[in-house]
Amino acid sequence: MHTTIRFAVSALMALTLQPTPSSANELPTKVQIAVIDNIPSANAAQQLLEAAYQRLNIHMTTLHVPSRRALLMADNGDLDGDLFRIDSVAEAYPNLLRVPFPLLNGKLHAVVRDPGISQLPASSAESPLKVAILRGVIIAEKTADALGMEPVHAENYDQIRTLLELNRVDLAFVADIEGITPLANDAWAGLHALPNPIVTFTLHHYLNQRHVRLAGALADVLAQLEREGVKSGILKSVRGE
After folding, report:
1. Summary mean pLDDT of the chain
2. At residue 66, does pLDDT exceed 70?
3. How far apart (Å, rounded) are the C-alpha atoms in residues 236 and 241?
4. Residue 19: its pLDDT value, please?
5. What is the pLDDT of residues 3-47, one digit of tens each?
6. Tell me: the pLDDT tens digits for 78-105?
7. The Cα angle at residue 57 between residues 235 and 59, in degrees rounded to 5
8. 3-state DSSP helix/strand/coil percent for the chain, to nearest 5?
9. Apex CA 85: angle with CA 173 and CA 232, to 5°?
10. Which of 62, 155, 172, 178 could be cross-linked to 35 through a Cys-Cys bond (beta carbons 3.0 to 4.6 Å apart)?
11. CB contact at 8 A, 88 and 142
12. CA neighbours within 13 Å on the CB side: how many for 183?
């Protein structure tokens, strides 16, 4: 008799401790997102995502980590997601899930000293051009590699400008994301951006695959924020307009 009762109690406890199907569909109450330092557009992306998460009653915090570590931590599930990436970068991390609404759009420009140059200089295996790029901007690294250039990493855009002005590099790759770019600063007035961007790209927010339902909900909210003008307001504020 006592054995039967003990078995029934144990079985009831085991059932009670099992997660219910409905709990798996609930949105989290908080998330921690990886952010890369020294990326000017990260401020706009962070403000936009904070607004989106707030509408879903989710508290968003950030952790500033190097670029590839950010991807690894989000992919491993140590963090809930990564602030923003281009598709070709995230493809190497199978546990990352793209939020299916674009966060920001960008262009990568080549900047040179000589205003008379209108086309990207040719680089060769025998004499590769040296290009200054911002550490952690993987699209700049991939572009330099595809063009056969030798990347020279810098920690911020001030260092990139100095490298170019002192003739330590042949050119620099500088991003323009929704009009957020160091090229708008007077300090860059003496340098020349080639008229056509080298590459254009779209940045998406990425989540760990455990947040499948959250990805869809975020996409809907980001679309609302764009329709309502909230996104444009954040961008104007970051650009100082």
Report:
1. 89
2. yes
3. 5
4. 31
5. 444 444 444 443 333 333 334 468 999 999 999 877 889 999 999
6. 999 999 999 888 788 999 999 999 999 9
7. 70
8. 40, 25, 35
9. 85
10. 62
11. yes
12. 21
**Cα→Cα distances 197→21, 106, 124, 130, 223, Å:** 49, 10, 21, 18, 27
Question: Which of 45, 31, 43, 26 is CA-nearest to residue 222?
Answer: 45
Task: Name residue 113's amino acid.
Answer: R
Whole-number Å distance between alpha carbons of 125 and 167: 20
The CA–CA distances, whole Å, from 171 to 28, 122, 130, 181, 194 equal 45, 11, 7, 16, 10
Q: For residue 2, is pLDDT > 50?
A: no
State the Cα angle at 200 between 123 and 208, rounded to 5°.
115
Pairing relationship of beta strands 104-112 and 96-98 according to DSSP bridges:
unpaired
In the block, tokens 């998460």 appear at 53
In single-letter form, the type of residue at position 196 comes to: N
Does an H or E element contain 95, and which? none
CA distances, 225 to each of 92, 190, 220, 228 (Å): 30, 37, 9, 5
Structure-token match 């100082």, residue found: 240
Q: DSSP letters of 138-202?
A: HHHHHHHHHTT-EEEEESSHHHHHHHHHTTSSSEEEEEEETTB-GGGSGGGTTSEE-SS-SEEEE
**Beta-carbon contacts of residue 119 (< 8 Å; ≥ 6 apart):** 194
Q: How far is CA 41 from CA 145, 216, 235, in A?
A: 23, 24, 9
> Looking at this protein, which amino acid is placed at residue 52?
A
